[in-house]
Amino acid sequence: MAQAPALPTGFELPLEPRLPRIGSVDQVALEERAATLAKRSIKREAKVFALELAVRMTDLTTLEGADTPGKVAALASKAIRPDPSDPNVPSVAAVCVYPNLVPPAVERVRGSGVKVASVATAFPSGQSPLETKLEEVRWVVEHGADEVDMVIDRGAFLAGRYAKVYDEIVRVKEASGEAHLKVILETGELGTYDNVRRASLLAMAAGADFIKTSTGKLPSAATLPVALVMLEAIRDVYEETGRAVGFKPAGGIRNAKQAVQHLVLVHETLGEDWLTPDRYRFGASSLLNDILMQLRKEKTGRYQSPDYFTID
Q1: What is the pTM of this model?
Q2: Count of structural domains, the chain
Q3: How far apart are CA 238 and CA 61, in angstroms?
Q4: Rounded Cα–Cα distance for residues 82 and 92 (Å)
Q5: Angle, nearest 10°, between helix axes 256-270 and 44-56?
Q6: What pLDDT digit, counting tens, does each position of 111-170 carry?
Q7: 164 counts as catalytic
Q8: Residue ranges of E strands in 8-88
Q9: Is 312 a known active-site residue?
Q10: Domain limits at 206?
Q11: Are the beta carbons of 169 and 208 closer than 8 angstroms?
């Protein structure tokens, strides 16, 4: 890798020592490595383990304008017991909902171990005044959200106003209190791998507990090369500071094969310590059913019709 350039205009001095050297991303090498890792095959026993791990890492999500308390209650029931016919299939990590649906989600998952995550900060655009964003964050935490998924102000980031983005994440982290903060970069709008790396480092320096690819509103944000850029940024921060930050790919991961490819990527980049829901999540809605079908096939030798699983 070439010598790292100075921090871009917009970073203030107090921020500079907190970031590893930014560097530039070698696009060809990155995409070749991602493609090579995607071709890795795993044995059947390991595949069952990987699929069950993917279930435990899933943030089962509904973020539609037509969402209702009833839909959220049904989603939460599925989160607790993804496959009613197989009690050995584990619960998912969390349900992720809009702020006003946090209370029914909290009520339904109480005592189950499944967490409640809420999007916030004017999801998905991020285009609201800071005080409005902070009020929303405080509200979801007060009503029981365990995790907050915030979106960065991509307009500010792309305009080079990095200090503004940094300060906003710091304020949201403070407003989140004990709740874990996942910072959504919306990588499909950032344009370059260099921008993805820069935004990842910025979010981690500002206090993100997780960095996340996308709102899920773009068709294909969680590509393997983008995920690899973010995982390598997490690795660099960990090696330089000892701070472990989680990762959540979201947007475009729709089947079990893709989920396994992403797990191979994190295993090869960050190691087994990141193969846990505390450090890795899938943002998904349609993904879970495909994983359940693949699990049923691996355990019984027969494919199950999609009709046997509820549509989220």
Answers
A1: 0.89
A2: 1
A3: 29
A4: 8
A5: 90
A6: 999 999 999 999 999 999 999 999 999 999 999 999 999 999 999 999 999 999 999 999
A7: no
A8: 58-61
A9: no
A10: 23-308
A11: yes
